[in-house]
Specification:
CATH class of the largest domain: Alpha Beta
Largest sheet: 6 strands, mixed
Distance between the termini: 38 Å
Number of helices: 11
Shape: globular
CATH architecture of the largest domain: Alpha-Beta Complex
Radius of gyration: 20 Å
CATH topology of the largest domain: 2-enoyl-CoA Hydratase, Chain A, domain 1
Strand content: 15-25%
Length: 274
């Protein structure tokens, strides 16, 4: 649980991660607004659980990941990290294997589309989580940075791979070595985000996108995500074989047969995820 300030300025107790449903879309919200959604052990434990839960829930057909307040996520809570360093037990970096890796792989490998609604500052592991999502909508004025080198660390949360794949090695190297911040508008120019909208329109825009995806061929989306992940690193022959196997699996689904029939009848298809 975490303390947050409500609309009346009073402190109330809320979960560190909120999970809500909007039809077939699950909205997962990092919920430490007074700390710009800095990642404590409590929040990270809750996020690991939330990502796993929505991945396994067949009634969820798309996911939105966002932050409460004015930030998406500023990465690791350095106050908590400093306390762990001071304890000197050497376990403070267990969080990479315990939290950051399963969160990142859970988002990237989610068998349904994930949209990041980047409502504000997006730094460090927060940037890693955003890039692990499939599509991103950003608030005008939001700032981004890697931030790791500034505290003498290398990247985690998959940024070593996702930045290079998204932007190329040269720009990824600049961002990781120099730690220079960049704007939402630059992120759009570079192709990191799909759109930049006013802050109060970020969540509605992400929800609209997620609902459109939720109505689509979710089984095909899952195969597309796996194919893209494989295609980023595997030899062409392996990619071709995987594509053929995936097409065969999808070709046996009701969604495919129904979509072909709808096309021939000049009707819009209905996808049920079966």
């Amino acid at each position: 649980m975490t303390l947050v300030t409500d609309d009346r300025g009073e402190m109330v107790t809320e979960p560190a991660v909120r999970m809500e449903r909007d039809g077939a879309v699950a909205v997962v919200t990092l919920n430490r607004p007074d700390s710009r959604n800095a990642l404590t052990v409590e929040l990270k434990d809750a996020l690991v659980a939330a990502v796993s839960e929505v991945a396994q829930d067949a009634s969820v057909r798309a996911v939105v990941l966002t932050g409460s307040g004015k930030a998406f996520c500023v990465g690791q809570d350095l106050r908590e990290h400093a306390e762990a360093l001071g304890a000197g037990d050497g376990r403070q970096f267990d969080t990479v294997e315990r939290h950051y890796n399963p969160i990142t792989s859970g988002l990237a490998g989610m068998p349904k589309p994930v949209v990041a609604a980047i409502n504000g500052t997006c730094v460090g592991a927060g940037l890693g989580f955003a890039l692990a999502c499939d599509l991103r909508v950003a608030a005008a004025g939001a700032s981004f940075a890697t931030a790791f080198a500034a505290i003498g660390l290398t990247a985690d949360s998959g940024l070593s791979a996702t930045l290079a794949r998204s932007l190329g090695t040269a720009r990824a190297t600049e961002l990781l070595l120099l730690g220079e911040s960049f704007t939402a508008e630059q992120a759009w120019e570079w192709g990191l985000v799909r759109s930049v909208v006013p802050r109060d329109e970020v969540l509605p825009a992400a929800l609209g996108l997620a609902h459109s995806l939720a109505a689509g061929p979710t089984l095909a989306y899952a195969e597309i995500k796996k194919a893209l992940a494989l295609g980023a690193a595997a030899p062409l022959d392996e990619v071709l074989a995987a594509e053929g196997a995936a097409q065969a699996r999808l070709g046996r689904t009701k969604d495919h047969a129904g979509a072909v029939k709808a096309f021939l009848s000049k009707q819009p298809p209905t996808f049920e995820g079966a």
